Amino acid sequence: MLRIARTDAQLALVIGHELAHANLGHLDARLVNTVVGWAGGAVLDAGVMFGGISTNGAFSKAFSRAGANAFSVEFEREADYVGAYYAVRAGYDLAGAEEIWRTLSLEQPDSIRIVATHPITPARFVQMQKVAAEIMEKQRRNLPLVPELKNVRADADPTMAPEENVH
């Protein structure tokens, strides 16, 4: 991402996105999801083992991967959204910054159509246009630049600057 960012605003989006992951607790949630997935798979591995068949941990490995990827697309969308607010609050203009997603789709064509852990790039492009318009409207109306998240974890406060939101 750092290689394809062509403007300071695009770079600010990438950095804001990563800060948002940390501030919204996505990294901790992913770890919990991974452990829960692993535990469920381990139970299945043990059950099959009692039947006399060794799985070599196949279920715990597969469920661990599934747990790690649970909610990842939603986490990415949320981080894009909050990260855009961070970038604007840091003084960057988002006009045209959504082009980073077009550039990424040229660099990685599979990102246009394959949803695994991240939203497809066209969806991210459109979302960023909508977020930029939302932010511009708030600026026009002199409203606080606060993301309007509905499912934010209770221990993360997106209204705070990233450096103030360390738990």
What's this entry about, in short?
The protein is mostly helical and 167 residues long. The chain has six helices and no strands. The protein has one domain.
Helix content: 55-70%
One letter per element, helices H and strands E, the order comes to HHHHHH
Q: Say how many strands there are.
A: 0
Structural class assignment: mainly alpha
Radius of gyration: 19 Å
Number of domains: 1
- Biggest beta-sheet profile: none
Number of helices: 6
Strand content: under 5%
**What is the arithmetic mean of pLDDT?**
80
List unreliable stretches of 5+ residues. Answer: 151-167
Shape: elongated
Distance between the termini: 27 Å
Plain-language structure description:
The chain has 167 residues and is mainly alpha-helical. It has one domain (8-140). 60% of the residues lie in helices and 0% in strands. The chain has helices at 8-23, 26-50, 58-69, 72-89, 99-107, 121-140. The longest helix is centred in the N-terminal third of the chain and has 25 residues, at 26-50. The chain is elongated and about 65 Å long. It starts with 7 loop residues before the first helix and ends in a 27-residue tail after the last helix. The model is unreliable at 151-167 (pLDDT under 50).
